[in-house]
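User: Second chain of the day. Same drill as before.
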Amino acid sequence: MLNLTTNEKIAALRAAAKSAGADAVLLMTSDPHCSEYLPDYYNALPWFSGFTGENSTLVVTQEGSALWCDGRFYVQADKQLAGTEIECMHAGSAGVPTVAEYLAAHVTNGQTLLLDGSCVPADLAHQYADVLAKNGAVLKSQDVASAIWDASGARPSLPDTPCELLTTAQTGATAAEKIAQVRAELAKAGATALAVTGLDCVGWLLNLRARDLPCTPLAVAYALVTSKDCTLFVAPGRLSDADAATLAENGVAVRGYTDLLDAVSKVDAGEVFLVDEKATNYDLYTALSAYKTVAGSDPIFALKGVKNPVELENIRECHIRDGVAVVRFEMDLEKALAEGKDLYETDIEKMLIKRRSEQEGYLEESFPAIAAWGPNAAMMHYHAEGEVNSKIEHKGFLLVDNGGQYDCGTTDITRTYPVGPLTEDERKYYTWTLQSHIDMARAVFLDYCTGFALDSFARGPLWAHKINYRCGTGHGVGFISGVHEGPQSLRPNNSVVFKPGMTITDEPGVYETDEVGIRIENELECVDLGDNQYGHWLGFAPLTVVPIDTTPVIVDELSRPQIEWLNNFHQHVYETLAPRLNDEEKAWLANKCAPIGR
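Assistant: Same format as last time:
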């Protein structure tokens, strides 16, 4: 069964639905934890469809099949689905029906749609159920895909890497203290209980880490907090006796990973669950609905978004280590280019990993590095691999977006390097991007400002030239966790108010299709700037300590405050990194951090 074609796999899904008395099947890129990055065990869609991109949905009816992908993956999906029966739907494009609209047209009159309710967020399942009901059709939670996938022998096993507990020297708070914080937030919301499903939320609550996901050191697990108890659900044998004892001392019991629904069914009837249907799978939401519930977001999202003083101290150390590694990588890159060596985009990731691996406490990348030369960088989520791997020519820019996971934090940094002669347009785009980056970094704002309000600080210099970037300006970063973390972000639809201790990336860019892509990214810490008669003021301090290349800059375009910020930033970078560098490295860094002026 290993050699089934895509069409044969789709036919098997169709037959399985019919055997179950149903008419259609829906699969989507999701897992029981509503994760951004999935354990391969749950990621069935690529095996069935051949499409390997993210954020997609496959619908198979008795008459046809269709797959939806977003704008990042139109070209990839068209190529990977070519020659199959699957119709490629470019989600968001004019004339393309949404998944709900497609279901309304193709599942009707007493028919049944099957989906795996453990791997579909409740809000989507409810949306689809409502659409079907209007046409006399029904939605049923039943997993028919797993049996086919399991029988193929191709399904990866559920991750079971060793788990470990972070120390309070790393996190600044015990599991017991964090559980108390969560119970206090639940009380404010009129609730007493919470099913914790997000892997990052479980990790934060119990200081639990593992290596179950690539680039994200978390464990596949759940937690259940009630007014009196807290339980961790994780596969047996993954915790050491010492860590299990530490959890017990913190009031945490341990049960098997698959025991959550059984435990929920036995919770005291008087408990009131706080439930977010966007972050809770459909099957779990159904089980929780047997109790009184209150709608609201998991309070852990907000709690972990504000780093405590111990975490911040560790994060600063993490960025120093990362800065040393990136400086040495930049020196390696310059040397290789000067010697005329042939470099390909995939070489860049290897060079970065080599230098980061030399640093104390390095675990892994925080995401697969994006190294994009020239016009490739105009694709924001471009990743070189296999045949998609351009040679770095000695002209234009090389964009490198990368990060590391350490035992003291998580990093994310982008630099755009000139690798040869630049056009006047390239220099302008770089300068305007730098202005946008600086204006965000030096922003001073009142403590009621949201990500929506702050996003415009960065866009101003680019908007002045009628240029925009079709993404947010920045995202939160986890602590030894996911590189993308909410609830805060710098984007037009974010309503979260910024608070001291939040971390955020500052990464505006210019993306001119088939021409050039430029991005400059630092990670920032939101800091308190004090009070006066007008209110409470906040600002940002840089966490990233890596120089920004000034050779492409058209200095006359910069304002005096922008030049002052850049020179101050470079002085900070040099003073912070120099004690950990040798004489040759210090001399190189001093040159890169030299002040500029008119």
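The mean pLDDT is 95.

User: Great, on to the next one.
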